[in-house]
Amino acid sequence: MFARSDTALLTAAEAARLRPQQVVDLAAERAGLARQVRSLQQQVSGLQRQLDWFKRQVFGQKSERRIVAVDFTQLSLSEVIDQGTGTAPPNPGRGVAAHVRKSTPKAPDAESLPFFDATKVPVEVIEMAVPETEGLAPEEFEIVGHKDSYRLAQRPGSYVVLQYRRPVVKLKDRQKIVCPPAPAGVLEGSRADVSFVAGLLVDKFAYHLPLYRQHQRLGDSGIEVSRPWLTQIAQQVIGLLEPIYETQFASIRASRVKAMDETPIKAGRGESGKLKAAYFWPVYGEGDEVCFPFFDSRRREHVEQALGSTAVAGGVLLSDGYTAYECYTRKTGLTHAQCWAHTRRKIFEAKDVEPEIAAQGLELIGELYAVEERIREQKFAAAKKRDYRLQHAKPIVERFFAWVEDRFAAQGLLPSNPMTRALAYARERRLGLEVFLTEPDVPIDTNHLERALRAIPMGRKNWLFCWTELGAKQVGILQSLIVTCRLHGIDPYTYLVDVLQRVGQHPARRVAELTPRQWKERFAQNPLRSPLHTLRPSG
User: Domain of 470?
Assistant: First the structure.
């Protein structure tokens, strides 16, 4: 071999003097270098795709989970704080011979104790009538004093204390002292008005304001309450609302067409002390109802646990490409519809590697969505929608899958190429992707479900995690009701104020009437209000 630099080219004279073996060696060397170059190019391409992916997660529009440091000082809904059964502070008691006798002081009336700064918090006084004095002349009775009960109430954007002034009346003819009781509250013996309870839940679950921040806001407003008290209220009220959630979930299970997905949440601590990875499995029903059942993993059996083992006649389950849904539909006999948005996303993610091919696929899928847009604009009924899809969307679907097969036949893409994986994803799910053509009630994608479940990742950015799995389940219960309210154009605050006052007296057999969908039809025109609603704000 000639002693030359690696980049120098042989002259014609030098090339003529090469022996045959030298020519073979040079050819082999060149082929080896070419393979190395291709390998390095693939590595660079893969690293570039990873970099682009991370850029999209940080700077793109799609919201994804981020790794955050756990703040163990933050209280969450799932903290197990039981004020009633918790350990009481040490009682000094009083000493007697041979032992210390515990003192038993009389528990004060919590409603009668001021817990606020009257110079900062507006107080609305509500004068209570005494039924025993009705029909009596003023000289027949004497007001000898008052008893005051305080309830924390809330107007949107402000706190108000409701002071119920209850006259203590002496009936002269009977020499009897009477005093009207304080009005019953949502939580027995609690100083929280229903308006405050509803505002607490809406702020946390609709506006994603953690309880520790609400506690800070209360303190800044002159309200002196404990953070465990807020947690206890939330837990007790969610317990009251759980039967409504279960009834709504039963309604969703009975839907012929359902959509299902999963979204991660950190809940509970494992053996190492780290928070465990768990999942909500949101399910969307035909009545624009959604529920967020919680499970501790992403195992496929959770699909059956959520939906049940018995399929609805003619039922359809719409999902992404996760194999857990396919296994469930095969087992139960449901029709499995696949999401076109996920198919499009796979092709879109490969556009940096194969821009021309990706553009072709995206254009075809865009034509499908143009058909769906025309259907929405025309507001076609079921039969008309089916006929329109068969006439206009079916030819596009056939052209799309013909294009997929042509791409595979060209044999121009490596198996590791992202475009190859995107095409394989679509080809393997063809039957599911074609279901919407003949099922007018089946959407083309799961975007309606993904819009509904945004409440979970948005909340997760603020309250970060749940201390316990029970707390995560409670998050799912409240989000199910609040998100469903949003889907039906219901103000969650108005709904909760009304339902929390009804739930204790409403017949159990008619609990379905309190789900947001039915509540809108029955009670939305004349909802129950807090006493605060009838008061004029103090000037």
Answer: 247-483
- The Cα 51–Cα 285 span in angstroms is 38
Mean pLDDT of the chain: 86
The amino acid at residue 475 is V
Same domain assignment for residues 316 and 436: yes
As a whole number of angstroms, the distance between CA 282 and CA 293 comes to: 6
Do 160 and 290 share a domain, yes or no?
A: no
Closest Cα partner for 61 from 345, 266, 468? Answer: 345
Are 304 and 416 found together in one domain?
Answer: yes
CA nearest 191: which of 145, 225, 228? 225
Output the CA angle 151-155-156, nearest 5 degrees: 145
Residue 80 confidence (pLDDT) above 60: no
* Cβ 251 vs Cβ 512: under 8 Å: yes
Q: 158, 183, 208: which is the final residue of a domain?
A: 183
Question: What is the pLDDT, as a whole number, of residue 65?
Answer: 37
Which tokens hold the place of 298?
Answer: 């992403």
Asked whether residue 448 is domain-assigned, the answer is yes
- Segment 210-243, tens digit of pLDDT: 999 999 999 999 999 999 999 999 999 999 999 9
- Contact status, residue 136 vs residue 166, Cβ threshold 8 Å: no
Q: Quick count: other Cβ atoms within 10 Å of Cβ 407?
A: 20
- Among the listed residues 451, 484, 449, 486, the one whose alpha carbon sits nearest the alpha carbon of residue 63: 451
Q: How many domains does the chain have?
A: 2
Q: Are residues 178 and 251 in the same domain?
A: no
Q: How many CB atoms lie within 10 A of CB 316?
A: 22
Using the Cα atoms of residue 90, residue 96, residue 97 and residue 102 in order, give the sign of their dihedral. negative
Residue 382 lies in a domain: yes
H or E element: which one contains 27?
helix 20-59
257-279 pLDDT tens trace: 999 999 999 888 877 778 888 99
For 34, 252, 339, 505, the CA distances from 38, given in Å and listed in that order, are: 6, 53, 35, 74
Tokens 């068969």 appear where?
390
Q: Token pair 């919407």 is at which residue?
A: 436
Whole-angstrom Cα distance, residue 239 to residue 290?
19
Q: In this structure, what DSSP letter does residue 268 have?
A: E
What confidence tens digit (pLDDT) does each residue in 84-115 have? 444 444 455 555 545 555 555 555 566 667 78
Reported as a single tens digit per residue, the pLDDT across 324-363 is: 999 999 999 999 999 999 999 999 999 988 899 999 999 9
Structure tokens at 73: 């000082």
Q: Are 211 and 231 in contact (CB under 8 A)?
A: yes
Among candidates 408, 410, 438, which has minimal Cα distance to 423? 408
Asked if the structure places residue 189 within a domain, the reply is: no
What would the pLDDT profile of 474-523 be if each residue is shown by its tens digit? 999 999 999 999 999 999 999 999 999 999 889 999 999 999 999 999 99
**Amino acid type, 153:** A
453 and 311 within one domain: yes
